């Protein structure tokens, strides 16, 4: 890994420690206590333990910083200008089914701006890191988004609405999906938004879009894409940290895919 700043060193240490716990729990997943938050929305002991490790490590390293976490929500610190955004286990459903496609996502917001992000896949030992203005890396390799110019050649990734999640959001997504799959080489669904965006940053996927997410799903990944030379924006032109709708790709494909998604 290239020389890292003190900030990234702190973030990497926290997610590595949490990742060791997730790796152990992944091998004993049948013994984990599981509860249901909603349709196809689960939380495990592993989520809670990972979040607690990250909370403790970051609180020691940067006392007073605020937090926004998937399981415990917002924790306001004495320093309101800095906020950690944490998903301790992104891809819980994959995790529960023994599928090694999940990650820890950690971002830092300074005065409302994303300034650092880490997405860590503990099973593959892939550490995606980015700092604003300093580039994006996978372990020791500099990342660049894919350079494909034609939407018809592009492999796109998304999140697919669960059948039990009814309403206009699901109907809207299915219409978007039909348009995108007709316009591209293929659409995949891997089940971890943070890794989807990290893979766009690494050039493994050409583009990504999804709606109705929470900030911890995509904050770190969005910065990774931007620092890898790509673009991550709100689908309809707003603030994705507020709406939870995001689209990401290279400079050429982003407007083409946005047009198709919006119809």
What do you see in this structure?
The protein is α+β, with helices and mostly antiparallel strands. The chain has two domains: 6-142, Fructose-1,6-Bisphosphatase, Chain A, domain 1; 151-262, D-Maltodextrin-Binding Protein, domain 2 (3-Layer(aba) Sandwich), CATH 3.40.190.80. Helices cover 37% and strands 29% of the residues. It has eight helices and 15 strands. The strands form three sheets. The chain has an eight-stranded mixed sheet, with helices on both faces. It has a five-stranded mixed sheet with strand order 12-11-13-15-14, sandwiched between helices. A two-stranded antiparallel sheet has the order 1-2. A hairpin with a 2-residue loop joins β9 (135-138) and β10 (141-142). α4 (168-183) packs across α8 and α5 runs parallel beside α6. The radius of gyration is 17 Å and the shape is globular. The N and C termini lie far apart (42 Å).
Enumerate the strands of the largest sheet in spatial order, edge to edge or round the barrel: 4-3-5-6-7-8-9-10
The termini sit apart by 42 Å
**In CATH terms, what is the architecture of the largest domain?**
2-Layer Sandwich
Order of helices and strands: HEEHEEEHEEEEEEHEHEHEHEH
Shape: globular
Question: What is the percentage of strand-forming residues?
Answer: 25-35%
- Helix-and-strand structural type: alpha+beta
Total beta-strand segments: 15
